[in-house]
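EI: anyone free to look at a 269-residue chain?
SC: sure, send it
EI:
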Amino acid sequence: MKMRNFTGRTLRWEWREGVVELTLDHAPANEIGTAMLAELEKFVASFESLAPETSVCIFVSAKKSVFSAGGDLRELYATAAAVPARDRPAGVRAFLERIHAVMNAIDAAPFVTIAAVHGACLGGGLELALACDMIIADKMARFAFPELRLGFIPGFGGIPRLKRDLGNAFIRDLLFTGRTVNATRAQTIGLVAQLAGEGEALRIARSTAAQIIKYDAVTRAAAKKFIKPIPHDELRREIDLFCELFTRPAVMAALKKFVEDSGPMPYLP
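SC: here you go
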């Protein structure tokens, strides 16, 4: 069924003149949990019907200070705490298999995908942006992988995709320190394709989309497939490692401390 437009609980998308704009809109910080995953699955299921008349998809956030804070760690903790320790890896693996299928579909989408980023783009939010073909960020955007402070690694495919696109020195710095990287440095090392003024990322993304639409769709699709191979083997190993690390009691203790934090943005490093 063709779904040019959709409004759900956590996101919405709208088709207009060959461009789809998908807006993340899930309080408080566009966390990616089961609700958003289900709606992202709806979106990728519509690719086949959208593809013949779509050249570009832009991912953007409706929240003023954040693109996405990443995976829904409160939901992850509640789900894991509700089952015996021996059953936790199976539940986590099932979720990761679903999110990887979505991220791989976005990575290989039959049109160009642009993440228009403002504010915090952390963990799984950064992994979503990395699945896109390019990131356009306003100068106030910040990027980070804070997962190691909770005892695990990014689990939505971020490290293999960063390795595909960037040098290992930057990846190790981002991963091991958990520090945020500002948009200017992110552009310098090649993470960000275009740097926009504050509040201008979506406008620049729309302008870029208008340029992309001018060119031949068949050639564009062939070029994308050639220059952006999906690292399937490493992605599968990432799931295995995440599940292995998640079984440790230290991870549940760290997640418990996280969910009990009353600060406004405990996900920030």
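EI: Residues 88-107 form the longest helix (20 residues).
SC: 👍
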